[in-house]
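User: I'm writing a short methods note and want a consistent example. For Alpha/beta hydrolase family, I'll paste the sequence; you return only the structure tokens, no commentary, since I'll be parsing the reply automatically.
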Amino acid sequence: MPSLLGLVPRLLPRPRATSDGDRVVVLLHGTGSEPGVFHKLARALRAHDIRPLALAYGRRGTEDLDRSVEDIERQLLQIEAPTFDIVGHSLGGLLALRLAHRPALRGRIGTIVGLGAAWRGVPDHGSHRLTKKVLGESFVQVKTAEPFPAEVPEGVTIVSIVSDADKVVPSWSSRLGHVIELTGVSHSRLLHEVPVVLASLGVRARP
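Assistant:
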């Protein structure tokens, strides 16, 4: 049975991948979110002739984590470009890292940029039954008493954009690979740090 949050309709339009550029950047939202949260980043990527693909998965990211990984993988395997990068916010970063370990995607993922990414999960404070019913399976599964292993596959570059004002994902989880530290940016506002994300993807600002 889906969670109550998973039944909430999308409020924002999905960014459309209208660019004809060869480079593809996949955008993965966090738990209880939706593709439309990436509208600013998607617009900026298109302006640089990069094709953004903001994917919907797992009833707003509330379903079982393994099921969400399989859902996203099916969509990624339809991408014609031989390689692509991923930007993941919160849970989206954790799922991107797990996708990088999937045999069918080996060698296809270049860079993963995590925005407050829960690479190693988040603290477990109990109340699982109510959390699962209202917010969904993923909210329970991402909680952990011990950090999840965060091994990076060979050939994949990880960039973590973190903030001292992130009150959702702790620093012991969000720091992996090359770390870019911001000051005073909340967890949700990390989505709007477009220039930092572009730089993390090696995209040069145009004059």
